TrEMBL record:
Record-stated family: Belongs to the Ole e I family.
Protein name, UniProt field: Protein DOWNSTREAM OF FLC
Keyword Disulfide bond recorded: yes
Keywords assigned: Disulfide bond, Signal
Annotated Pfam families: Pollen_Ole_e_1
Transmembrane segments: none
Keyword DNA-binding (UniProt): no
Signal peptide: 1-26
């Protein structure tokens, strides 16, 4: 019986303790993308392109007072993807990614509703062990839609049940 207990303890320590160590030293990696909505459709289309050099912020607010307790920024790479490292667990905070600045003058109006993305930056009682967290894509609107957008949007509508 004692040998079974020892085997159980050994197996438990091999599988459970390594899971607890990363949680205690929480560093989160937030990944997402920024696009230019060339059709002003409010969503990504076949005419959408991803923006290199866009600045993205991550902000966390204290849940009760809504006071900003954390802020950092990152920049998108050649694929329009950002990778931002966030230190510490933000257990009692409401966090979100947000558009800060577009490097493209004619595509620099944030699309309301697609200009922020909520992100969970805690491991506290939520069952999330992974340190890589994905944010929804965020987008800017082109000043004027491309000429081919009318045809493209009609194509999307013909495929719907509306």
């Amino acid at each position: 019986m004692a040998s079974r207990v020892l085997i159980f303890m050994a197996l438990t320590s091999l599988y459970i303790f390594p899971l607890l160590i990363p949680i205690a030293t929480a560093t989160f990696h937030v990944k997402g993308s920024v696009y230019c909505d060339t059709c002003r459709a409010g969503f990504e289309t076949n005419a959408t392109f991803y923006i290199q050099g866009a600045t993205v912020g991550i902000q966390c607010k204290e849940r009760k007072t809504m006071k900003v307790v954390f802020y950092t920024e990152g920049v998108t790479d050649s694929t329009g993807t950002y990778h931002i490292e966030v230190e510490n667990d933000h257990r009692d905070s409401i966090c979100q990614c947000m558009l800060v600045k577009s490097p493209i003058k004619w595509c620099s109006t944030p699309d309301s509703g697609r200009d922020t993305s909520s992100i969970v930056l805690t491991h506290y009682q939520n069952g999330i062990v992974n340190h890589l967290h994905y944010a929804n894509a965020m987008g800017y609107l082109k000043d004027k839609p491309l000429p081919e957008c009318e045809k493209l949007l009609q194509y999307y509508l013909t495929d719907s049940d509306v």
